[in-house]
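Justification of resources, computational component.

The compute hours requested in this renewal are based largely on the per-chain cost of generating structure records like the one below. Each record pairs the submitted sequence with a full structure-token output. That output is archived, and it is also reused by downstream analysis tasks.
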Amino acid sequence: MKLLFPLLTLGVTAALFLAQAADPAVKPLRVLVVAGGCCHEYDKQTLALKEGIEARLNAIVDVAYNPDKTTKATFEIYKAKDWAKDFDVIVHDECSADVTDPAYVNAILDAHKAGKPAVNLHCAMHSYRWGNFREPVQAGGDNARWYEFLGLQSTAHGPKEPISITYTDKTHPITQGLEDWKTINEELYNNIQILGGKPLASGVQIVPPKAKKGETLPPDAKPTEATAVVAWTNEFGPNKTKTFSTTIGHNTETVADARYLDLVTRGILWVTGHINENGKAEPGYGK
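The structure output for this chain reads:
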């Protein structure tokens, strides 16, 4: 486990100096990216996120990275009292599907319930789940709280094929001015139910026909089309804590894509309250 607090590199120092020179009254946003677990190149993706966010925002990005590549990856920072107090926003980029200790998960969620904003990426939607999670969870249920925090329940994904992304709410500050785009091979996460989330974008994936085990494809087999919400906002808990989530981001090439990083950084600005109704960063927060 590695918790990297502000890296004293020339790049970060220069970015901080330029931001402060532009407006000394505006402090950089403190962003914590929590990443690790199964199935992804988190060592590379955290670097892409850090560089991409700091290039776009007046921000300092710290990374809590666990090299554990299993679905049981946990993070030491969550075990600390007031673990989120030093940060303005938490970016959840975990893939911890088999971490099922309610006390551990509640310690994460309590910070957000108290008002700490969050941005949730890709496999964060398939983490911290237990019980009969493949069926719609019941509001208020023991296994519903993480999904209620996200604002949408997803349980599985399709094949790795390109996804055509359409911004369905083009008036929201996060999406204003962003153009629809098509990814490289990515995973389209399903939507079991929406739990308060407000959709911003949908994805369409053409799924090639696939034979069942032991069978052969009929000659007239045709591809099918799958559609799902791929980006949305939510308000969680009594303080209506703002969250932004996107299920896109399986491949490192996608995470490093300027269109993806634009979307994520807009989400950071929105959840922290530093973006205007026209999708522009408030003075001192953009670059």
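The helical segments are 10-22, 42-56, 102-113, 145-150, 252-255, 258-272. Residues 179 and 195 are 27 Å apart (CA to CA).
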